[in-house]
Write a structure and sequence with these properties.
This protein is α/β, with parallel strands linked by helices. The protein is built from 23 helices and 19 strands.
């Protein structure tokens, strides 16, 4: 057969048509997007140096080496598809980080149905400048369309006469295949060397032990880069859910067993409050994004939380009460308060381990004759609540369909209507003594309260998200005041232990706005406390023990403390919180990211999670002190987080119960 040499105009002589050129363009574009992401994180003490860029290039090679094994057209299409997918992933991580200060993981993606419900919150996290992130698509997508659908282009690039890779002729199919295999193999080996080498070096030097512990995802990203982080997350998920499942390290199991044996062997202090309110009703309200910094504050001469402030006069107010949430946010607060274990470092326990065994507050109270109910005017499947609440042994979950939508607001129902309808149900449908747990919604990000419900003059903050947040909190405070009056009018207040606490921060992190609001400069310690402290208010039936408590406490302390007031020993349960009424108990409060306070020092971990890189503050002077002053409590905090993670991940409470029953039977 005679093959006619193509004319100059028909031959693809430009560098753009060379596979190596196209591949390099792909690598450069993706590297630039990863650098863009890193620039927008603004993560303290985390840089993207030369080795980090090398890891990124190696990761890209590992993700794309297989495209060399395809014919030219298949390679081009595959690189375009990879560009689209990786761009979407990187951008999704960037938006997610803006709200959660964390990265997407497989457990989070399994909760993807929640994304639809975020609505306006997502809209506020997307910036106009982000359009530049997708600028290359203006060329990439049309180019892909030409490759796929333009016959002239396809005929030119499938002609047997066309010179393929460089100057070599690919008329021989075997020769073409060998060269594709060679190129793909080189990309694979190079990718392994560039990605794995530096990561291994890091793991044996300054990041030693990182892969042996469940650390914060940002610290893992600091070592692996974004793409390798997602690869490691995928590996961990597959390891946990394929085959027989994960197996706990025997040493970790023994550490957990010893921790609870020591805790359960310490007799509680039976003070005047122990059992004083036996058989009282218990109502706990979890306030959405209700933070501590604005308690007692005014703006333009108007109190922001007047009803909360008034209730403080006859209640216990915990001025250093910390939220201990992780990625699960609201569900983590619920988990910590009602189960007294630390939330997971990745994902939400409500979603990942809803079928595991827990010593939940509703379950314990139900075993002691209580009617147990939870109220939340939203979809029952959100955060997997319906399944989790069944496991926690609630009698009834009053979700969105159980409430009349007579005053729609934000995500669902206004808090005022939610409180009113919930109290009505407690009064008519629920048998005393009861435990009622309520979760509010009206002060949810992005705090877009309708004008007709705005009653606060926020002055210079008008039109800002910070001002909108103050408006929302003021509205929730008003709804809380009406709820308390309703409980009093229905005769429930006098026989009820009433608690109100915030679930997590408001995701507004601009220090200048807090300085402007508080009228003073703030240091690192001030901001750490502002962003992690939420209020806890405890009103006892007779108004006893009222006052401000300055010792540190946290969400995990709620269940042990409620049991103390009801005269129920907490010692036989697998809880990690402190009993705030037991002066003999340790009062170290540990946050999910490793921050902790024991009342005398406050430790703030660095983003790289090296202990010495963190900051240790003396709370008496509020100045930095020797890092070694925090070492003993740091070791305890690390142990607590590891014990809690081990217990939850491997369902050890069930295991311990079976061991206890076996021992009792043998005796």
């Amino acid at each position: 057969m005679v093959v006619t040499r193509p004319t100059r105009s028909s031959m693809p002589r430009g560098l753009l048509n060379h596979p190596l050129t196209l591949y390099l363009i792909f690598l450069v574009l993706m590297l630039l997007k990863l650098m863009w992401l890193h620039h927008n994180l603004h993560a303290y003490n985390i840089t993207m140096g030369l080795l980090d860029k090398v890891i990124a290039i190696g990761s890209l090679l590992l993700l794309s080496f297989w495209t060399w094994l395809l014919p030219r057209r298949g390679m081009i299409v595959s690189l375009v598809v990879l560009n689209l997918l990786l761009t979407a992933l990187i951008y999704a991580d960037m938006v997610y980080y803006r709200y959660f200060q964390d990265f997407l993981t497989i457990p989070v993606l399994l909760q993807a149905r929640q994304v639809d419900a975020l609505g306006d919150s997502i809209a506020t996290l997307i910036y106009t400048s982000d359009l530049w992130f997708f600028a290359d698509w203006l060329v990439v997508i049309p180019f892909a369309a030409i490759v796929l659908f333009n016959r002239r282009y396809r005929s030119k690039h499938t002609s047997p006469s066309v010179h393929g890779y460089g100057r070599y002729s690919y008329n021989d199919g075997k020769a073409r295949l060998r060269r594709r295999l060679t190129a793909g193999s080189i990309a694979l080996v190079l990718g392994l060397g560039l990605a794995v080498g530096p990561i291994y070096f890091y793991s044996k030097t300054w990041a030693k032990g990182l892969f042996d512990n469940n650390w914060w995802n940002v610290s893992m990203y600091n070592v692996t880069g974004l793409l390798a982080f997602h690869g490691y997350d995928l590996y961990n998920y597959a390891k946990d859910h394929i085959g027989s499942g994960p197996q706990a390290d025997p040493a970790d199991v023994e550490q957990a067993k010893a921790f609870f044996a020591e805790r359960q062997g310490t007799a509680p202090q039976n003070d005047a409050l122990f059992g004083k309110y036996k058989d009282s009703n218990v109502i706990i309200v979890q306030g959405e994004a209700f933070m501590n910094f604005m308690i007692g504050q005014s703006i333009g001469g108007q109190e922001i939380t007047p009803h909360f402030n008034e209730l403080m006069k006859e209640s216990q107010y915990y001025s250093h009460f910390y939220h201990q949430t992780g990625q699960g946010r609201t569900s983590d607060a619920d988990f910590g308060a009602n189960i007294s274990l630390h939330p997971l470092p990745v994902g939400s326990a409500f979603v990942r381990y809803a079928d595991h065994t827990y010593d939940s507050l509703p379950s314990i109270l139900k075993d002691n004759g209580y009617s147990t109910n939870v109220f939340h005017a939203y979809e029952s499947g959100f955060w997997n609540r319906y399944t989790m609440y069944q496991n926690m042994n609630y009698d009834k979950f009053y979700s969105k369909n159980d409430f009349a939508q007579d005053d729609p607001l934000g995500w669902s129902l206004s808090d005022e209507s939610f409180f009113r309808q919930s109290v009505e149900k407690m009064s008519s449908d629920v048998t005393e003594p009861f435990y009622s747990f309520l979760i509010t919604l009206s002060s949810h990000h992005p705090y877009a309260l309708p004008k007709e419900k705005q009653q606060l003059d926020v002055g210079e903050f008008q039109g800002t998200m910070f001002g909108n947040y103050l408006q929302s909190v003021h509205y929730v405070d008003s709804a809380l005041g009406k709820m308390v009056e309703d409980l009093k009018n229905r005769g429930l207040w006098e026989n009820t232990i009433f608690m109100f606490y915030g679930d997590h921060d408001n995701s507004i992190k601009e220090q200048s706005q807090y300085e402007q609001f508080l009228g003073r400069s703030l240091n690192e310690l001030d901001m750490a406390q502002i962003m992690n402290e939420v209020p806890l208010l405890v009103h006892l039936p007779d108004g006893a023990a009222a006052g401000t408590i300055n010792e540190p406490s946290g969400q995990l302390d709620i269940t042990p403390s409620v049991l103390h007031l009801l005269g129920l020993s907490d010692q036989s349960y697998y809880h990690m919180g402190n009993d705030v009424y037991d002066d003999g108990s340790g009062r170290t409060v540990v946050l999910r990211n490793g921050t902790f306070s024991d009342g005398s020092v406050f430790y703030i971990p660095s983003d790289d999670y090296i202990y010495e890189s963190g900051a240790c503050y003396d709370l008496s002077t509020r100045d930095k002190t020797d890092i070694n002053a925090c070492r003993p409590s740091h070791d305890e905090a690390t142990k607590r987080l590891q014990v809690s993670d081990t217990v939850i991940t491997y369902d050890l409470i069930q295991h311990f119960r079976e061991e206890d029953n076996s021992t009792a039977t043998s005796q």
